Amino acid sequence: MPAQGTAKQPATELDARYSSALNPRPGAADVTATEWAEAQRRLATAEIFWVSTVRPDGRLHVTPCIAAWHDGVLYFSTGREEQKAKNLARHAHCALTTGANSLTEGLDLVVEGRAEPVADRSLLEEVITAYETKYGPHITSPEGTFHGIGDACRRGDVVVFGVAPGTAYGFGRDNGIYSHTRWAF
């Protein structure tokens, strides 16, 4: 079971090498690191994530998924026979990314950590509730894209993984002012 990270506050660092702090454009001198609270808010509301795992031969496998941020851990699920599940059974390190699709606005987030299968039944119910609350009709309605995911999790048809951040990164863009924040846990 992944370690819960609610109380764990990371060390936050602005990396000026990759931020506008070293660029003479207007406003760049005032660039600051993104607060972890803002990153958590974005993780909680983002709808689509990309999970990156490593195949046995070392090649990367990247695929979209839905995920729920709950008690400081990012949770996602996958079929037991899907490539990402097979990859994680062999090598638990992975990265989940989400963000904006704009060159000048938004905040892209990367969460790196170990994907641990959720075995605790009470935690699994909390994660299912987090999914259902976040994605609503997509999961709870018979017409929903992921209808039945909660029951599939309960039956064990899919495996639910939790990724407690080991390191996370935020790449902010605000009208041409760029920031690169690193959070170390």
Report on the architecture of this protein.
The protein is of the alpha+beta class and 185 residues long. The chain has helices at residues 36-45, 83-90, 121-135, 137-140, 149-155, and strands at 11-14, 49-54, 60-65, 68-70, 73-79, 93-98, 105-117, 158-174, 177-184. Strands 1, 2, 3, 4, 5, 6, 7, 8 and 9 form a nine-stranded antiparallel β-sheet that branches. The model has no long low-confidence stretch (mean pLDDT 92).
Distance between the termini: 17 Å
Shape: globular
Structural class: alpha+beta
| Percent of residues in beta strands | 35-45%
Q: Tell me about the largest β-sheet.
A: 9 strands, antiparallel
Helical proportion?
A: 10-25%
Mean pLDDT: 92
What series of H and E elements makes up the topology? EHEEEEHEEHHHEE
* Spans where pLDDT lies below 50 across 5 or more residues: none
